[in-house]
Structure formats: structure tokens, C-alpha cells
## 1
Amino acid sequence: MLALNDAPSIRHAAADAAPVVELLSAEKIYSDGTRALAPVDLAVRGAEFLTLIGPSGCGKSTVLKLMANLIEPSDGRILWWRGGFDSIGSDGRRLAFVFQDPTLMPWARVEGNVRLPLDLAQVPAPLARTRALAALAHVGLDGFAHHYPRQLSGGMRMRVSIARALVTEPDLLLMDEPFGALDEFTRNRLDADLVRLWWERKLTTVFVTHSIYEAVFLSTRVVVMAARPGKVFKTMTIDEAQPRDGAFRDSPRFAEYCRALSGWLAEVSSAATGC
Ligand SMILES: Nc1ncnc2c1ncn2[C@@H]1O[C@H](COP(=O)(O)OP(=O)(O)OP(=O)(O)O)[C@@H](O)[C@H]1O
Ligand SMILES: [Mg+2]
């Protein structure tokens, strides 16, 4: 049987690691009165790959935006490395956000797009260039630095967006449905790349998806959210060896996790629609 609901062990250090970002009774009511999040308690630990999944409107993006400090909670608190957001920079920590849309500058070449965060931070040009090229190599795009975004496929553009996030060497990576618009084959390939990158860097990652398969393949922990207002419904630990590959996807355990998760999602979806 699978270990559901916060099993005590996972096969890397994250279970015991200190929290990187924490929602403490965090609530969000938008200015038009929409209650997007009921008080939510959620701690993401160092080197964890945590995925949020749940019906549309359950507050996944809201949680990510709170974690990125793009919006403020209406009540409760968010802590980063057990401190306030202001202390992140002075401690030399960084976070990066990847959106569903790669949001590249069409007039700039791939290298210019990837360098943007470094140029904004006034990193000297030769160093920025070296780091941009290294980030592009990491996502399998060496040789494309001088292309324009329009010359790339959707999957390649998404890789550029990930390279732009990685170039700052973030300590916390927030990804909101980054592969949602891609075909399944490309998505599986990028998922496999992402697992490798995450494993190499032990990069604390919070990921949002609507795909059960993607959630199970990528995550050390999956948080299922329910809607109206958004809240944590249940948590599933995916206690499997890392880094994962196609063999895990083909395994009976993978299917078992997916079945269990699918059952939980059916519960929250029927509660949301009243069906
Ligand atoms: N800026 C905003 N102003 C008002 N309401 C908002 C705002 N952003 C989100 N909401 C509302 O808050 C709730 C949660 O939205 P959120 O975008 O976090 O959900 P989600 O789980 O990411 O959905 P999806 O899966 O469709 O991306 C929804 O009811 C949404 O309509
Ligand atoms: Mg969303």
C-alpha cells in the first residue's frame, strides 16, 4: 500500500530540512471581496519539490503569488527562511517565478532574454553572458543564444523562460503551470529535465499543475487544494527514489499514486460543483 498523507520519510533530506517558505494562517480576500483563500498553513522545506493541484479557482496561483510576495495576505503571515521578505536579499537568497506563458521579449535574442535579470541587477556584461550561456546549456539550448523567440518551438521558448529563472541561481523556484500549454510529449521531456535540474541543485520548488501524472512524476509532496474558499484538502507524499525517470512512470506504484490522487480530486471537484 502507498504511504498517503504526510508519510514520515521521503528519500532525500527535505523531510527534516528547515522551512524555506511558510504560510501561517494566510488568508486572501481580493479587493472585489472574492475570498480566494481561507486561512492556509503550509510549510515548504528545503530541497522539497512541492506541487499544488486542485480545481480551477481553488487558489493555487494565489498561494504562489503570496510566496513570491507579489501580493500580500489579508490576514496571517508569510515567512521566508523564517524571516520577512525584506531579509531575503540581504541574506543573499533569491527566488524566481516561471509563469505559464514564457513572457519573452520578442525583439531580444535568446541570450538577451535570459540575461535580463542579471542586466537589471547590473551584473558585469562578460559575467552575465557566461552565466546566461551556462543556464541555456542546462536546459539543453546551447547553440540557440542568437535566435529570436519567434524562431523557437513552444517547448524551446519555455526552456528559455526556465533558463531565465535559473540564471539568478535561485534558492526558491515558483512555477505556475509552466508546461500547461505544451503537448504531452514535450511536457514529459521537460518534466524529466526539470527533475534532473531539481535533483542536481536540490532547488526548493513549488509547482502548480492540473496534471495528476505530472504531479506524481515530479513531486516529493503533492498538496490537493479545495475551492470556495481555497484551502488545503489533503497532502500526499510521493516517497520514491530520485532522480526519477521513465521507469517510475511505467511502474505500478506510479499508477497507484495517480489513482489515489485522482480520487481526491474527484472529491474536491464534486464538492466544488455540488455534483
Ligand atoms: N486579482 C484578483 N481579483 C479578484 N479575484 C481574483 C483575483 N485573482 C484571483 N481571483 C479569484 O480568486 C480565486 C482563486 O484564484 P486563483 O487564480 O488563485 O486560482 P487557481 O487555483 O490558480 O485557478 P486556475 O487553476 O484556474 O489557474 C478565484 O475565485 C479567482 O476568481
Ligand atoms: Mg492559476
## 2
Amino acid sequence: MGTTTAAPLVLLDLDGTLTDSAPGIMASAAAAFDALGLARPTPDELRSFVGPPLPVSMRALGVPPERLSEAVRAYRASFAAGNMWDNRVYDGIPEQLGLLRAAGCTLAVATSKPEVYARPICERFGLTARVDRVYGAPLDDVPSSKASVIAHSLADLRRRELVPDAERILMVGDRHHDVEGAREHDIDCLGVGWGYAVLGELADAVGIVPRVDDLAAAVLARLTG
Ligand SMILES: [Mg+2]
């Protein structure tokens, strides 16, 4: 599995953890329902698109199974046409990433967002230079679970000899998918309080960090304490 000599590893969710990406995601989801001629979900329902794999949210809001591929294509057309840039890094995140790196952690973004979008978004918003790697999902219609994204991330990091023993790996995320995906790999997940979770959703996380400015200290307390 891991090596005892590799540095502590922090896997970071993107949407709702590092970036406030709701506006562009909600606009793309609304455009997809329009394109299919289906009634637009409410704003609260559209907000539920932030984080989970796209087809899972589409299905939950009534897109028929046989039209899921069409819905995902319509979403992505709208997202790639400009909504992907309707996004911002939460205040204080760059500083917290700097503190974690200064403390010797390896940092990897691990998002359910397709890697072909995650990489340019991290580049545009200055995150690429602040982490070691950026991993996302493949661009296909099959829902990529968070667990499969973590598996893909760990496989590549292992080839680079950057995977320590599991107790020195921490996932940081804002949704229950992050908690469950990490658990499938025996990795703890630290929840963040500034993302898109609903009340109680992060009950199984090892803790919840309420403020961005406390992120690095909370991560380091788990990994080195
Ligand atoms: Mg998230």
C-alpha cells in the first residue's frame, strides 16, 4: 500500500471546498433542462448539482434514464461555452494551501469534475501552482464516484512514490460523497463548513472545519498530531 517515508498526503475536493463554483454549475444545469424541454428545477434543486456526479443529480431531478446522455451533453456544452469560468477561489484558500505545503504535505486536487475541465479551472484560478497534482474524472457518461476518482489519484501518486500509509492521508471535502469515497479507501475525511453540504450531511467526517482560516491547522492536527 503506502510507504512510511512518503510525506503526508492531502486530497482536496474542488467545488465547494477550494472554489465557489455554484453559479456556473447552476446555470449549466438550468440550460440542460431547457435544452431537453423539461421544467427547470428550483434554485435550491439546481444547487444540489454542486459536488455529486452529474448523472446522479440529473436522475434525482427527474431526467429520464434514456435521456441522461443528452442531458449531460447539454450541460457540458453550456459549461464549456463559458459557465465554467463563473467561479472563484474562496478567500484565504491560497494562504492555507501555502501553509500545508510549507509543513511538508503533498497536495492533490481530487474532484468528480471531469479532468479536462478541472485542470484549466485550477490553472486559470491560480490553484495549479499551489498543489502537486490535479485529478478529476474521465469525460464519459458513466457516473464517476468519488471513490473511483480517489482510486485514480492514488494509482498515479503511487507511481510517483507520493503515497504514505493510509493514516497519513486525509481527504478534505464539503459533501457526503467525499466522506464515503474516502472511506472506501480507508481514508479519513475532514469536512469543511463553507461548502454545499446540508445540515447533518457531514456527520461521518472525522471533523468539520468551520472557517477557511483554520483549514491548515485542522489538517495538520489530524495528520501529524
Ligand atoms: Mg465538493
